[in-house]
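Hi P.,

Sorry for the delay on this. The queue was packed all week, but I finally got your sequence through. Input first:
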Amino acid sequence: MKKILFTTVLTVLVFLSFSQPKIQFDKTTYDFGNVPQDGGPVTGRFEFTNIGDSALILTQVKPGCGCTVPTYLKDPVPPGGRGYIDAKYTTTNKAGSFQKGITVTTNEPVNNKISLTIKGMVVNRPLTVFEQAGYVLGEGMVRIKNPNAITEMKNTETRLDTFPIKNFWNKDVEVKLMELPKAGYLKEKYRSFGTTLKTGEEGFIVFLYDASKRGVFGESTDIILIQTNDSIDPLKPIFYDITIREDFSKLDKKKLEKAPKISVDNTLINYEKVKMKDTLTKSVTITNTGKSKLLIRGVNSSDMNIIPLIASPAVSHAPVATIEPGKSMVLDVKFNAEKFGKNKRKITIISNDPTQDVLLINVEAETVK
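Then the structure:
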């Protein structure tokens, strides 16, 4: 009996030793050579053959870094069958040589791990004439070096901003402003050239921003449009994103003691789970715990689907609400469920409380089916 069992086991072992998968790659190193840094990801393919006697399975293909993404055939490869592993490498990393590994694990009973290698050289592309001159933003042959003015200022302040502009075209270019705001808070103060920028000429335009004439508190956005005869992109925008805060620097101790003080019953509005396309309204209570009128200058939302339900005043300088000392008001906030997933946003309440003129309310919601 023991002899029969031994013979059976030996037969099985002999069978297994001859019936097993075995992977053989055409090559284990893929050389990309020189690849441009801004050319996007590059992909190299490793092809293999199952030279064994049973089905081959790739149980794991693990890259050595996050810059390499492998994709591979997940179906069993029969004896004599062919398969592949594609290795995609992201070239936006710094220029220079690279060499990365990929570990392949198979269902082979022995020596089931194989290392693959990708390598190459990421090379910088030549700088464009715009980049050489520092004009990387915008389109066309006439460009503004930095068309963005983003800052915070007091409602009593003015500021001057200088915007370099250059004509890269082989023609003279006319430069004129479209209509500026009629309130006069934003206007051209000076330019280094006339109405025309000559071929290759670099000049600048200076604008004056007067917060006292803007008539708002909190975040405000203005766009200046410069008209040119650039054949590619004739309109050149300049963006003003200004946060205006009230200047309390002249308040003495007595005035500070008699000042209004804002308080809310909750700094978090949580709608929890809201079905897609549904609308839900919740509220916070704002109280004036100070000794003079609390002026709510503005209530702003960071998301168009989160809407504070408060009427705008007829006059831009006027507050959106006034709360007497010791009194309260209810601020309703509507949430429109327009996007799946969790939402975390903020509502900004701007007031004339000198100790807390900007108060943030966190808003959370999860949109579900």
